[in-house]
């Protein structure tokens, strides 16, 4: 059996097409941390589990709370600090830096939004 160099570019192009077609799905499946604001945001749909954290910043101008949270194994997220929009603007007045909170968030085209939050004693 002889191999023709004339077919080598065609074979390489075919292999590249296969790899490029499969790569985005593989990247999404293995990269659970691919969100612009925060890596874990792309990992899952809305967070259905309560997350305990500590308020690190209240930014009324941006309508965001920055919260440090511990490990969340259900969402495959380690401890980190994340900035979230808030569903209810009144929450920006109810919480201050250092407050312990339990919250849930949802990811949308606008970013991460806290959909429920309460103080934890």
Task: Report on the architecture of this protein.
The protein has two helices and five strands; from the N terminus they run αβββαββ. The chain is an alpha+beta fold and about 120 residues long. The protein has a domain of about 80 residues: Copper binding periplasmic protein CusF (OB fold (Dihydrolipoamide Acetyltransferase, E2P)). The protein has a five-stranded mixed beta barrel with strand order 1-2-3-5-4. The longest helix is centred in the first third of the chain and has 23 residues. It is globular, with a radius of gyration of 22 Å. It starts with 7 loop residues before the first helix and ends with a strand.
